[in-house]
Every structure is written in structure tokens, then in C-alpha cells.
Amino acid sequence: MTERHSPEIERRKDDHIRIVQERDVETTGTGFEDVQLVHEALPEIHYDAIDTSVEFLDRELSAPIVIESMTGGHGNTTEINRALARAAGETGIAMGLGSQRAGLELDDESVLESYTVAREAAPEAFIYGNLGAAQLREYGLDTVERAVEMVEADALAVHLNFLQEAVQPEGDVDGRDCLTAIDRVVEGLSVPVIVKETGNGISAGTARKLADAGVDAIDVAGKGGTTWSGIEAYRAAAANAPRQQRVGTLFREWGIPTAVSTIECVTEHDCVIASGGVRSGLDVAKAIALGAVAGGLAKPFLKPATAGPEAVIEQIEDLIAELRTAMFVTGSRTIADLQRTDYVLHGNTREYVAQRTGRD
Predict the structure, then answer these.
(1) 286 is in an annotated binding site
(2) What residue stretches are annotated with the FMN-dependent dehydrogenase domain (predicted)?
């Protein structure tokens, strides 16, 4: 890709942030509404002694919360990433960056700063970089390492967004040989590799392939939160591309619900992040009870980030308070205890899981 493509890439990044802030891009049906944690009337622990810390890819986080990959690649996103990173650093949680393709391929200092600002703002935070699976086929290992070095990343996320690409008028719809490329990067990269979906979930079968490839973590990013198909439908409408608009709208609700995807992935991998419609500390607690190591959120942090790091910190502290309360009333002093707590599945989630596993 040459520098002349810079306006197109930057415009797309700007479109995404604007649409998420201004339009209806939420879906429902994460499955968390069907997960009920069993109340413990005699917790026998002191609330203040509850330990929310967790080990994540050989680092300790103060709480099992991840600021999911959102943005980067446009000058307008620099202050958003600065606020998110500073908040992640001050609260001790993890943060992912948006796709770094623009940072690798465009000769533009403001684009590069939109990524590098994260490490500058949070020297000690767990920050992970981000590239698309389709780009891994095109890049040599040295180029992928440049993405890591760009932000001094503690890990690299490889995102799977083929539904989004299918709806984009300019999308990359070649889904061949991505698993081979992931395998190659896992084997040679200097940092752990996370493979994440972008709102449509990961099945047990796909998780098994990723585990066999040696990926260090799986982020399910299931159905029930921000719909990238819907976002691209809005972009297609603005670009007078009616076919892509219709397809994007049709597939707004497509995917594996986050709770179901979490249940499936934890059977195949021992480091699973549950994201996709996670909206509270109680959702995080439910995800951990299902077997996840952490819960991830993206859109809920976007508006606070535009106000500055203090607003993001307040949001994180709210989430931790909600999580801590869920731990208290399930008698869970640690995250490991919460992973073993009892829960009941109801409704569509129970039916979905039963059909997928052959059990009632």
C-alpha cells in the first residue's frame, strides 16, 4: 500500500469512531441475561479482603478487566488512546489498541502518534498491539515485530473480522491461509499472541484450531455488543452502496452469543477473554464463572475517553466495585474462587449450549 491511500484509511478510522458515537450500533443477546450466579447468604469473607487481581499472560492485573481494542490510525484518535492508556496504567488493567495497519503502511507522524501515545501515557501498563489476520499473510515476521516495537507491546492481538470485511465496499474478503499465517507468527513472535473476533464469536472448533496453533489467549468477542456489520451498513449507505448496506443490515444480529462462545472456548483453551456486550462488573463476574480469565469492554469506555482519563478511571472503578460485590455475594475471595462458583443457565443460552453439546 502506498501513501496515496492514506486519506481512505484515515477516513475509515474516523468514520468508525463517529458512527459508534452517533448511531445505533448495539445488538442484544449476549447470553449473560441467562446466566444466574448462585447467591451465598453466608459468604464468610470480609468485603475488603476480596482480591480481584489475576495473572494474565505472565503479568498481574489488578482486576480481570480489559479495555478492548478500539482505535488508532487517525489524528483524531490520539487523545482517546491517551486517556484509555493512562486510565489502564493507573488502575492496573489491560488495554488493546486498534489495528496498526495504518501505522505500518502510512508515512504520517500523526497516524503513528495515535498508537505510540499509549505507551507514552502508560509506561507500565499491559498494552497489546493489533493486526488483522488477513494482513499476517502479507507481512513478514519482521513487519509484525515492527508493530510490537511501535508500541512496546506486551502482546499482539490478531483480529478476525471477515463479516465486517464482507460488508465493507473496500473490504478484504480473502479468508484463505490465515490459520497458517497465525501459526507462523505464534512460532516466531517475541511476545504472546491473542486471537480475537470482532463481534461474532468463536466456536469450540475454531478455538481448538487456535489452541493447536499455539495461540496464548483467545478473545471471543461474541454477539451482543457493538455490531461491526451494522457500522459498515451505515458507511455503505453514506457511500451509496445499497447492496453492502442491505447485507450489513441483514447480518447485524449474526454470531455466537458471548456467553455461549465463552463456554465453548474454555473447553479448548485455558486463557479466554470474554468480550462482546459486556456492560457491567456483574457481566465480568458471570464471564469468569463460565471459565474466562477476564472480561473485555470497548464501547462503554469510548464516551468517557473523550472526556479524559479521569472519566475512564471512574468507569473502571465502578466496574471493579460491581465485580467485587458479585464476588462477595458468591463467597468468592479470589478470582480463582469465582471461576469455581455455582451458576445456573436459563432460556436461550441453555438451549443453545444443550444443542451444541448434546446435553440438557
Answers:
(1) no
(2) 26-100, 179-341
Is 303 annotated to bind ligand?
no
pTM score, whole prediction: 0.94
**For 236-240, which contacts have Cβ atoms below 8 Å and span 24 or more sequence positions?**
236/167, 236/168, 236/169, 238/15, 239/169
Asked whether residue 229 is marked as a ligand-binding residue, the answer is: no
Which helix (H) or strand (E) covers residue 342, if one does? none
Give the residue extent of every domain in the chain: 7-357
Is 164 known as a binding-site position? yes
Residue 298 labelled as part of a binding site = yes
Q: Is 277 annotated as a binding residue?
A: yes
- pLDDT by residue, tens only, the chain of 360 residues: 333 345 566 667 678 888 888 888 889 999 999 999 999 999 999 999 999 999 999 999 999 999 999 999 888 899 999 999 999 999 999 999 999 999 999 889 999 999 999 999 999 999 999 999 999 999 999 999 999 999 999 999 999 999 999 998 778 899 999 999 999 999 999 999 999 999 999 999 999 999 999 999 999 999 999 998 989 999 999 989 999 999 999 999 999 999 999 999 999 999 999 999 999 999 999 999 999 999 999 999 999 999 999 999 999 999 999 999 999 999 999 999 999 999 999 999 999 999 998 754
CATH for 7-357 (3.50.30.40, 3.20.20.70, 3.40.50.10860, 3.40.190.10): 3.20.20.70
> Is 1 marked as a binding-site residue?
no
The annotation status of 95 as a binding-site residue, yes or no, is no
For residue 69, give the nearest of 296, 281, 238 by alpha carbon. 296
